[in-house]
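FIELD: query
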Amino acid sequence: MVYVQASIKLHPGKLQDFISLISKLSPVTTRHGWKLLGSYASVVGRLNTVVDMWELTDIKNIEALFADPEMAKMGPLIAEIIEDEVLTVLTKLPIG
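FIELD: result
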């Protein structure tokens, strides 16, 4: 398994739109082996920040998702909601 942490800076006032966006993207992400483990909004710290944790069966699923034409179609909507995003690829440590 591979994990992706998405640190997302939203445009102000776009949290509810972001929640709707994730629901719209769900069929595409699921098709490419992305499983959302959790989505978290900041309460203290940088404003308008969301952190999503995803589980992937293979690192190749990252490229497959972003090459999907349905993701490309969502580009303008994503740009209206998301100001900046940083993806970090992680591996699980053998702890716990």
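FIELD: remark
The helical segments are 15-31, 60-67, 69-73, 75-81.
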